[in-house]
Design a protein that fits this description.
Blueprint (H helix, E strand, L loop, with lengths): L3 H18 L6 H9 L4 E2 L1 E7 L2 E7 L3 E5 L2 E8 L3 H9 L1 E6 L5 H6 L17 E4 L5 E3 L4 E13 L2 E13 L6 E4 L2 E4 L23
Length: 207
């Protein structure tokens, strides 16, 4: 007679073998890349201000790391100009892009994008954080952050930022990154209402 524990172990073993049979073949790197391309993420532009001007970089790796205190994390390539700019500035803003802002996402993803408020144009900027970091207008929202530490992670650095202020913007539908492409969600995806004022931090200051 088969004991209940033996039956249970056999069932667990069968489930394990079934799952293993569907594990993708090929190199680990290729499998990881193919699988993570299926993650749907928001798209943000991190902006900061340095002595030589304003810098921005598009990322889709931003995530909420903690609520008490509020902190975000973002992974940036160790040799990237975006990482160098953030660490040199010490403070940065997270601009959560709206569904119509894919041109901005593409601009700040270019390696030859340049710096300054005239890149891409002065008209896209709207206000500053209390720390003087320029903000992009028309965003879903903004987070004002201060770099607290970095953690080496392979060929990237994980930057942890303490959120010191946050505001909702005028756009209600976010831009989404999926399978290596930017996607505009329909207006019907917008929430029924918003609880906070749609104004950037310190929006009385114009760039």
């Amino acid at each position: 007679m088969t004991s209940p524990s033996t039956t249970s172990e056999s069932a667990a073993s069968a489930r394990t073998h079934t799952a293993a049979a569907h594990w993708p073949a090929g190199s680990r790197t290729a499998s990881v890349r193919a699988t993570t391309r299926k993650f749907a993420t928001g798209v943000t532009v991190l902006t900061c201000s340095r002595d030589e001007g304003t810098h921005g970089v598009t990322v889709s790796t931003l995530t909420l790391a903690s609520m008490k205190p509020p902190m975000v994390s973002v992974a940036l390539r160790r040799d990237s100009q975006g990482l160098a700019a953030l660490l040199a500035a010490g403070t940065f803003a997270v601009n959560v892009l709206g569904s119509q802002q894919d041109p901005l996402a593409r601009h700040f993803a270019r390696s030859d994008r340049g710096e300054g408020l005239t890149r891409p144009s002065r008209g896209v900027w709207a206000g500053h954080t209390a720390d003087g970091v320029p903000l992009l207008g028309g965003a879903v929202g903004w987070l004002q952050c201060r770099v607290t530490r970095t953690v080496p992670t392979g060929d990237h650095e994980l930057v942890l930022g303490l959120v010191t202020d946050a505001r909702l913007g005028s756009a209600e539908v976010p831009l989404v990154n999926f399978a290596g492409a930017l996607h505009r969600l329909p207006a019907s995806a917008a929430p029924a209402s918003t609880a906070l004022a749609a104004a950037p931090p310190d929006d009385t200051t114009r760039s």
